[in-house]
Amino acid sequence: MKPDLGLLAEYAEGLLDGTPAGDEVARRLGSDPAWARAYRALAVALPAVRADLAALADPGPLPAEVARRVEARLASSPSRRRWRWAAGAAAAVAVVAGVGTGATWPSATVDPGTSGRATPPSRVGGTVVTHSGADAASAGVLGLEASPRVAADGGVPPALSRLVAPTALVACLDAVERATSTGPPPSVDFGRYEGRPALVVVLAGGPGRTVVAGPACGLHGADLRARLDSPR
Amino acid sequence: MADDRALLAAHAAGDPDAFGTLVRRHRDRLWAVALRTLGDREEAADALQDALISAYRSAGGFRGDAAVTTWLHRIVVNACLDRVRRRRPTVPLPDEPAVVDDRTDSVATRLTVHAALAGLPAEQRAALVLVDLEGMPVAEAASVLGVAEGTVKSRCARGRARLAVLLGHLRYDGNPGAAAPVPPPSRRPGEDM
C-alpha cells in the first residue's frame, strides 16, 4: 500500500491519536520505509507551508467600487421597498452650473456593457466606469460614497449612449474636472438621478464628493445637474 | 453602540439603517474571506453581493444560536463554495509524497500561494482560509462551515499537505498511477512531479 498523504497529514497533526487509523499508520511507519520516508518529508514541509500562509498579504478593505455594486444590487432588491429602505433620506442637493470645456483626459477603451451587475467595471484613464442604471437620489447601504442608489434597473439609457464612446466620456470627465476644480474622478456610473438618465461622478478628494452630470456632459461644459453631499 | 444582534433585530423590525451599520462593521473581513476563498476579485465581488442580499432578506430567520458574525461568514462562505462548485472540478492529487524538494526557492517550480490555494478542493480551501488565514478558532470555523470541529481539523491538515506539494515543499518521485496536481507554470527540464 502506497503512503496515504491525507492520513499522514492527519497523523502528523495528532488527529488520529487513539484511533484504529492512527494505530495502523504507526504500524506502517515502523515497517514500511516508503511510509516513513513520506512522513519525514511531510514533517519538514508543513512548517514551510504555514510560513507561506502566514506571509500572504492581507486583501485590504472592501474596495469602494465593490461596495457600490453591492449597494446597487441591494437597492434594486424588491425587499428594499418592503423594509422601507432609506428612500427619501437622501443627500442634500445643490444645483451647480456646468462651465468649461476640454478634452485632455487620457484615452482608454470603455466597455459599454448593459448593467452594473452583469458587466465588470472598466476604466477610462484612472476612472472606474460602471453601468448600474441605479438612481443616485437616496442613501445607500454601505455608506462608502455619496452616490447611493435606489431602483436600479441596469443598462445604459439611450440618452447616455453617446457617452459610452471613450472619446465622449473622456471629454465629459475632463469637463467635470474643470467645472469642479478637482483631479481625475475615481469613478463614474451610468445611472440616473431623480429618475432621469445621468452620470454619477465621484470626485477626487475623498468620499462624500459626488456630482451628477447630464447627457450633454462634455459638449458644452460638464452639464452638471447636482452635487450630492454625503449624508454622514 | 448597538451590538450585532440588536442591529440585526432592528433591521428585521424595519429599521432602514441597521443593516448598513452592521455590514459596514464587518464588510472588510467578509471581503477578505470571499476574495481568499475564490481567488478572483470579480467572482468574490459577485459572491459578496449574493451573500449580503441573502443576509438582508433572511435576517428575520436568524435564530441566534450563533454569533451574528458567524452567521454572516456562513452566508458568505456558502456563496463562495456555490461558485467554486459551479466553476470546475478539482484536479485529483496523487497520494505518494517522496522527498523534500531542497530547491524550493525557485519561483519557476512553485505555484504562488494564491494559485496553490485555488488548486485545493473547495472545502479544504474554505477551512484553511478561515483558520489559517483569518485566524478564526476551529470551533467558530466549524459553525461557519456547518461541520464538526474534527472535520475542520482534518480538512486543514489535508489541505496543508496538498499545499506542501503545490508549493514545491514536497514533491513526488514518480507515481505512474496518479494524476498530476495542478501543474506549476514551468518545470525544470527532466524533473518529475
Describe the structure using short key phrases:
heterodimer; A: 232 residues; 6 helices; 15% strand; rod-shaped; B: 193 residues; 8 helices; elongated
Please specify the SSE layout and strand pairing.
The complex is a heterodimer of chains A (232) and B (193).
Chain A: H1 5-12, H2 20-31, H3 33-54, H4 64-75, H5 78-82, E1 93-94, E2 122-124, E3 127-130, H6 166-180, E4 187-193, E5 196-202, E6 209-213, E7 224-229
Parallel strand pairs in A: 3-4
Antiparallel strand pairs in A: 1-7, 2-3, 4-5, 5-6, 6-7
Helix pairs in contact in A: 1-3, 2-3
Chain B: H1 4-12, H2 18-38, H3 41-58, H4 68-87, H5 113-118, H6 122-133, H7 138-145, H8 149-166
Helix pairs in contact in B: 1-2, 2-3, 2-4, 3-4, 4-7, 6-7, 6-8, 7-8
Give the total of beta strands of chain A: 7
- What is the overall pLDDT average of chain B? 79
Average pLDDT level of chain A: 72
Q: Quickly count the helices of chain B.
A: 8
Parts with pLDDT < 50 across at least 5 consecutive residues of chain B: 91-109, 172-193
Structure description:
The complex is a heterodimer of chains A (232) and B (193). Mean pLDDT of chain A is 72; it is low at 80-118 and 144-153. Chain A has a 7-stranded mixed beta sheet with strand order 1-7-6-5-4-3-2, with helices on one face. Chain A is built from 6 helices and 7 strands, in the order H-H-H-H-H-E-E-E-H-E-E-E-E. Helix content of chain A is 32%, strand content 15%. Chain B is an all-alpha fold. Chain B has 8 helices and no strands. Chain B has helices spanning 4-12, 18-38, 41-58, 68-87, 113-118, 122-133, 138-145, 149-166. The model of chain B is unreliable at 91-109 and 172-193 (pLDDT under 50).
Quick structural summary:
The complex is a heterodimer of chains A (232) and B (193). Chain A has six helices and seven strands.
